[in-house]
Amino acid sequence: PSCFGYPLSIFFIVVNEFCERFSAYGMRAVLVLYFKYFLQWDDNLSTAIYHTFVALCYLTPILGALIADSWLGKFKTIVSLSIVYTIGQAITSVSSINDLTDHNRDGSPDNVSVHIALSMIGLILIALGTGGIKPCVAAFGGDQFEDDQEKQRTRFFSIFYLSINAGSLLSTIITPILRAQECGIHSKQRCYPLAFGVPAALMAVALVVFVIGSRMYKKVQPQGNVMIQVAKCIGFAIKNRFRHRSKEFPKREHWLDWATEKYDKRLIAQTKMVLKVLFLYIPLPMFWALFDQQGSRWTLQATTMDGDFGAMQLQPDQMQTVNPILIIIMVPVVDAVVYPLIKKCKLNFTPLRKITVGMFLASLAFVAAALLQVQIDKTLPVFPEAGQSQIKIINLGTDVATVQFEPQLQSVNVTPMGSTGYMTFETSQLQFLNVTSGNKTTTTVTEFLGGNRHTLEVKNTATGIVAEWLLDYVTSKPEQGNNLIRFINNWPDTINVTMGDRYFGTLMPLSASNYTLFPGGRKDKITATINSNRCSVTPETLGFGSAYTIVINRCTGETLDITYSEDIPPNTVHMAWQIPQYFILTCAEVVFSVTGLEFSYSQAPSNMKAVLQAGWLLTVAVGNIIVLIVAGASKLSKQWAEYVLFAALLLVVCIIFAVMAFFYTYVDPNEIEAQLDEEEKKQVKKEQDVDEKQAEADSQM
């Protein structure tokens, strides 16, 4: 059965691919944040495990192709590995359920190793599944067409590529929204089970859709795997060359010609072409090393930025959607506009030149990321070192307060209802503080802890100056763009405070609540209850990554009068500043990735496509391993320096590749095949002639 001239079975395959990509990319989008905030790993370990996982996903396709071509056939391989995949996603989803081991119900898992073990098992199964079916699905789609449907088949591959990007685009938007929800049985936290569970459900849908179409598919029997033959041929040539290494054996034109004793000319000629392309692949992994950091380092960079886009609040892991959006726009634009323009300018933009330009652009994108990182670093607050203390004064009274840090360190004036920033002192030098307000003076002291921040509340009351110390345990910026908020009760009565759905408890006069974490960019209503009167106010938006002390002063009518004191400034560098680096990197991907596959296919015989596909995916895997090695070996403490290091490495590789490309001669596999056909015909004719002559000679006897 067909529809619009396409086999009907194609639609099942495209839907399956869409769901599978949604599932894979959705899970990858939140993965690095899951490692960091749920499993509590630091940036470096999270980045390392993320890239190990991606590398595994690109190593397993070779396994998938072998199973499909030599043993099960594509259909059975896709079905059986999809089942493994779905199970893996379900396990990962379960591993992120906080209540699984949270027996004391404090909102963090009691036994993290259970979660780590489960998620690692899940991720290994996912890598097997997603990688194993990767080479099969596209090829299985191609199998559905008859030989005379060349045009439809080409169109199918572009629809297929679009369905990959549509799947990844939607999931990179939706999964982070699911992650940002609050869920949990006993305590609320970020909803990772939902963020992993929805992709798992979609994968199950993909599997069902694929199986429903079973009757309509053309199923090609497994033909044996070309990769194995090529490997055997190369192995035999090397062994044979080694055996005949002494001078008395004549040299052969190419080292692969040593395989002629056992393998036919055609296979050897094809293998030569493949090796020529694979040799060019050697520098390519460096490109992927940079490209795949969008999901790790760049996402972590976004967590220190401001995601306020007016009407909407972007989550850090949603910035990755810039890439698929730009791909969907750029692929047609580059094909229809940019390349024709370059042609008009009489420039010969060969595939290898395109790949070189792609590498250069990716290197530029990382320079842009480094420049941005320098700007972000400037906005980060300074926290006290080990031997230092930081002190901040909040004046809750209606008179100016003067605070003298003794012995004669410095003195500050604090306006009524105002506060200072944090001032830094050497802990060993600070002894006590003298506070003067109105016409009263008092001396106050606390145990100053090195490496900590302290807040001093002062208030001039009828009975004298009240001075209360608070220890601020916060010594780093809130993660994930969250905000920290605490309240001070500047009221003669005891009050109950809530903000949104969080209860801050009962506050005595002049006492303070603990800091509580809120998702960034929200405006939650603040309500205070005194005796039985309720007063409320909607605060100004507190940005991303900030910490505030909110002082509750009084209630007029039903409106609460509050003042803000900023403890940690919000992220000020806007996430939109990441767009330039994403744009440059996407341009790089368009000229590099699309061209790379096209070039490989044009330079090798048709039956060798599987080998090249495997080689291409291998470059991605090796690229992710490079990230592990470079990030592990370089002891760079500054993130911008690491970006510059990667940019420099890729630039060097780009120059090496340009030299290799310069010496490459393009081949036309069809011509070579035609020559082989000619030679074979001649050979056959020769043998026939010999046979005929032999027959004539026999008859004359």
TrEMBL record:
A single cellular component GO annotation: apical plasma membrane
An MF annotation (GO) of this entry: symporter activity
Subcellular location: Apical cell membrane; Membrane
Keyword Kinase: no
Comp. bias regions, Basic and acidic residues: 679-701
Ranges where the record places region Disordered: 678-701
Any one of the GO BP annotations: protein transport
Parts of the chain that traverse the membrane: 48-68, 75-92, 112-133, 154-174, 194-213, 273-291, 322-342, 354-374, 610-631, 643-667
Membrane topology field: Multi-pass membrane protein
Family in the record: Belongs to the major facilitator superfamily. Proton-dependent oligopeptide transporter (POT/PTR) (TC 2.A.17) family.
Protein name as annotated: Solute carrier family 15 member 1
Lineage: Eukaryota, Metazoa, Chordata, Craniata, Vertebrata
Gene name tied to this protein: Slc15a1
